[in-house]
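Target protein
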Amino acid sequence: MVHKFLEYRVFDVNRILIAKLPCTDSDINNEQVGLKIYTFDNKVITMAAENGMNFQKPLAVDKIADRMVKKLYANGYALGDMKPVFEGMAKEKNDAINQKKQEAENNAKANSKNLYNIPGYAIGKDGNKKMEKSPSCLNLLM
């Protein structure tokens, strides 16, 4: 018997995908494989398959759709307007990237032969002295 592959999806009020649940139209197959909800933040929430799933019913009386939403809510997904959550996650990600960049820059400066943030001057190829109050870098000529 050929099984139909189905996917339940949950969106917030801004039509942003919160979670999806791939499954088949076979109760036996769903019980063997198990049902897994995949969320927007790459978490996997397992959900027990139950006999009696009828995919011909409207969503208003569909037990699997109702159980999926309840499972998401029980795992801390408030649903509704999730935009602040997405913005917070994006800010955390950007902050982590910026911190890594800053650490790499500081490490490069520490291992460099150049002098950083030390008052002084540089003499150019033309012999002119270039004064700066606090130059960002003076190359050591060796």
Q: What stands out?
A: The CA atoms of residues 11 and 17 lie 4 Å apart. The two ends are 79 Å apart (CA to CA).
